[in-house]
Amino acid sequence: MDNMLEMYLYETNTLMEQLDELLIEAEKNGVFSTNDVNEIFRIMHTIKGSSAMMEFSTLMEIAHHIEDLFFYIRENGMDSLDESHKNDLFNLMFQSTDALRGEVEKIENDEPLSTNIDQIIANINSFLEKISSPKGGDSVDSTKETDASEEFKPADADAIAVINQELAGCPDSDMPYFIKIHFEQGSGMENLRAFMTITALREIDLSFEFYPEDVETNSDTAESIIDNGFFLALSSHEDVDKALPIIKEQNSIETYEVIENAAVKQAVATSAPPAVSEASVEKKEVPAASGEAPAASTPSPAAQKTPQASAPHNNAPVKQSLISVNLSKLDSLVAIVGEIVITESMVTSSPDLQNLKLDNFMKSARQLRKLTDDLQDIAMSLRMVPVSGTFQKMNRIVRDMKKKLNKDVRLTIIGENTEVDKTIVDSIGDPIMHIVRNSMDHGVESNVEDRIAAGKDPQAEIILSATHTGSEVIITIEDDGQGMDTDKILAKAERNGILTKPASEYSKKEILSLLMLPGFSTNEEVTEFSGRGVGMDVVKKNVEAVGGTISITSEVGKGSCTTLKIPLTMAITDGMEISVGKSMFTIPIANIRQSLKTKKEDIILDASGNEIVKCLDEFYPVIRLHQLYNIETEITNIEDGILIWVETADKSYCLFVDELLGEQQVVVKPLPAFVNNFNIQKLGMAGCTLLGDGSISIILDISKLYTAASLNY
Q: Which is nearest to 202 in space by CA: 44, 345, 52, 61?
């Protein structure tokens, strides 16, 4: 059941995301197109069927009533709705999808489903009654029920028993063609596989019947499908030709055969003798997808049972090119690849091989390095997913806040196909949502007149963009609103007592960074969206948890921009190896601006006696790693060592180290649990890595390292 539940949740969440995008786009256009109506009907029908199979009754009920609603709209067209009805329909659909999503979240959190969904059901039913009453009300509903009953006939436990033995077990039907399907032996859940085949055929708007008729709701039909097969009944040869390519694409189908309905043929063909009709049944037990005329001789039974074997190679069933994989399996794969990278480096750097001329070994080692690099790249790419899923969710946030705040705003998305590690994508969803909400609530002006007076477009714009820059992704959330008044922010911070130095010494960048301190909010009143003092500090914490940085820029009257710099992956990173005494450390390349040698006269002391060095006409504090970590080293003279200028978010400073050992791609490993008990991460240690010679190198957290040094000094 765990596997079935996982598949159900994956499919339902995917359908809900598609539905959200469809609703947002349709609302922008002001109407549901015919394709939109058909797509919503298909999505709801799929959710209804799979929820019924999993016995999630509330989801099934909501989806069933929405399906009824769109069945009526599909039959009568959107023209049957006036403008007020269309607006009500959009609001009703968003309410319904929220209810569905809420139930799905309860399933994911292993919570009991809602016991009372009467209100949402009543809303759907009353809307259906409202739009159908001008057209005749009861007569329309009765027609809908009749049509629906033809498509979804009531469950009949004995349906498979009523068969015509003369037609290879085919059920009674007035359709001229049958497709008989047998699933692979031992595949399991045959009724679910049959239902998935039905759903795939409905996506191409194909009209057909299927037997057993209750595969959606009756799991007992799996046994009858194993014994007798699953039947599709179609009305024409053209429909057969449309259905076969779809059937070929379905997984776990072992054989299929096309059979003519002899009873129907005898009723319409008066000139052909019964014997000919019977013979035609035997000849059609071959794949109709071949497109060839039937052979003169009757195929052998083996050929009838395995149509793929007799068909040309290019007509073999085509398997789906996409599969879903559990994230934990990908985590294990990346971990193993990391171990391979470390082991390969240990082998090629073994002390036993020093000073030996081993040409063949070195040639093989270079080839091994190439293959491990390729393997590493492929393993990383498997975890990479586009940020489009996260970005598209922001459409819904903007849409809801537009209505509640009465603001005219459009969301522009750029670079939604940019790919990031799956774990990171999941982690940045909440921070991006919070920043977008801030832009809507704080940034965009409440009065359109203010925008017009400032020479701006009456409709405000929020731009959400993502771009690649080597080893990281830069995500920006920009608005053209009123911007942030740094004087007001500084005054509020001073009143709250969170300043650490005189207000006059704060730069604009430092003032904007105050927004990310715990408990700081610029809203004077608590609203539904902000003012509780829980906000940008949590955003900053979540972004830094995945190795990213966040910065804010703003100009009064022109707008604000929040920039997130996120690593592509947390598992493997490019680092610079440095040494301090006998210890080795790794600094992420993304944090390094440059390395430099300096003279003693270039170092000055601040009022507290701390060292400062001048770089590009700016002064930066110097942190000596050997003093911070109490490491014994012979290199204490500033001229003998080397300075590394590092930067992260709002911090920029220089590290004094003994020497640079070189750049290296390292596998990030977490610190042992017993070490974390001593809060060692607060000292600027983010993790560790194994080097090629088996030694351990500590990976430095540049942001926390500065804080640790400030407290230490």
A: 44
This prediction has a pTM of 0.60
**Interval 409-457: pLDDT, tens:** 999 999 988 888 888 888 888 889 889 988 888 888 888 888 888 888 8
Domain ranges of the chain: 2-151, 159-291+298-310, 327-383, 385-567, 572-712
Q: Which tokens in the block code for residue 302?
A: 């083996």
CATH 3.90.800.10 fits 159-291+298-310, yes or no: no
Q: How many C-alpha atoms does 539 have within 13 Å on its Cβ side? A: 27
**Per-residue confidence at 519, pLDDT binned at 50, 70, 90?**
low
- Judge whether 333 and 382 are in contact, CB under 8 Å: yes
| CA pair distance 570, 667, nearest whole angstrom | 9
Query: Which superfamily, per CATH, for 572-712?
Result: CheA-289, Domain 4 (2.40.50.180)
Helix, strand, coil content of the chain in percent (nearest 5):
50, 20, 30
Closest CA to 500 of 488, 487, 513: 513
pLDDT digit string, tens, across residues 182-209: 887 776 778 888 888 888 888 888 888 8
Q: Are 101 and 19 in contact (CB under 8 A)?
A: no
- Sheet (strand 651-657) strand order: 592-596, 642-648, 651-657, 618-624, 611-615, 603-605
Q: Write down the CATH number for the domain with range 327-383.
A: 1.10.287
